[in-house]
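Exercise 7. Given the encoded structure of a 320-residue chain, write a plausible sequence.
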């Protein structure tokens, strides 16, 4: 390292970096810096096969449907494929469901991370932490194996810190998510059947529907977006951090949004919980609580705007 005298500031004279730059006295054969490149196993990742088999979609925008088994050593599945989509077509990606890949098994960490628009990842099984991290327009559908002997809405199916920093896209999860579900979500629409502690923490945008119980500290630091919680027992307020949010009743626009998302959740995951709610929707919708950030509401009110469900149309699904 060399000192650049041109950028020296008077306060820099008080800094003593000797301990940070200390070089230990060791034998010559002992490495004190990176001596050889690390093998990250990139040459053998599942995404290389996905990219190869998605050639028609990547080159001609032709629909592609694939099926694969997956195991927990398959990490960040869909990320390299998304990179290829964005490099080819830009941030607009591909038309919805152009690439549809169904997996069976247990997905490793970061399943569907940074998933691009036009890619749908469907998983029959379960997944580890960081599902949908940085979701960027893609769609993630997860439901348990058809061979299960447990009730999905009473069991965890995806890990912690899922949909962290998601900016857009859709997620439908049949089962419970771990802690910090949709932390820093800024634009994705997600449905899940229960969450652990700190759900929707630091959320700034998007819409989240929780069809079950939440853990403590829900909505801590939440400054934008809206969450809808199915409060069957009427005790959700005990689990919500109300420092930055208010709990409200749903208006008609909220009702339409919730119905639309639950309908799609049932369609994609065959959720019994969603089916139960839809069959008696006029009564069940009364059990939902709207979690509305105070600052978001204040800003909209200051601009003379209603709280609109932005981009709801962009996630509509037809019956066809």
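Solution.
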């Amino acid at each position: 390292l060399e000192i650049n005298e041109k950028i020296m500031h008077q306060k820099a004279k008080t800094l003593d970096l000797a301990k940070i730059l200390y070089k230990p006295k060791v034998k010559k054969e002992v490495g004190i810096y990176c001596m050889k490149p690390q093998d990250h196993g990139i040459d053998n990742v599942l995404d290389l096969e996905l990219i190869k088999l998605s050639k028609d979609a990547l080159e001609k925008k032709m629909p592609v449907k694939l099926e694969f088994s997956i195991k927990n050593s398959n990490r960040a599945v869909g990320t390299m494929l998304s990179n290829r989509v964005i490099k080819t077509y830009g941030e607009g990606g591909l038309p919805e469901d152009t690439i549809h890949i169904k997996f069976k098994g247990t997905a490793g960490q970061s399943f569907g991370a940074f998933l691009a628009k036009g890619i749908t990842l469907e998983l029959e099984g379960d997944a580890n932490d960081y599902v949908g991290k940085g979701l960027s327009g893609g769609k993630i559908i997860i439901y348990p194996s058809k061979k299960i002997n447990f009730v999905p809405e009473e069991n965890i199916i995806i890990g912690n810190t899922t949909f962290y920093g998601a900016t857009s896209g859709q997620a439908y999860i049949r089962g419970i998510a771990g802690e910090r579900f949709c932390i820093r979500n800024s634009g994705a629409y997600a449905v899940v059947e229960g969450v652990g502690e700190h759900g929707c923490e630091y959320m700034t945008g998007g819409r989240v529907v929780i069809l079950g119980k939440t853990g403590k500290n829900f909505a801590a630091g939440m400054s934008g977006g809206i969450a809808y919680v199915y409060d069957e027992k009427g005790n959700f307020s005990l689990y919500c951090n109300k420092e930055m949010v208010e709990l409200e009743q749903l208006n008609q626009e909220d009702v339409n949004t919730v119905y639309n998302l639950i309908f799609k959740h049932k369609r994609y995951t065959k959720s019994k919980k969603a089916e139960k709610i839809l069959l008696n929707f006029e009564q069940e919708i009364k059990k939902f609580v709207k979690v509305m950030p105070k600052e978001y509401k204040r800003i909209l009110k200051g601009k003379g705007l209603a709280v609109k469900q932005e981009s709801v149309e962009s996630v509509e699904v037809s019956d066809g």
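Remark. Residues 309-320 have pLDDT under 50 and may be disordered. Students should compare their own answers with the one above.
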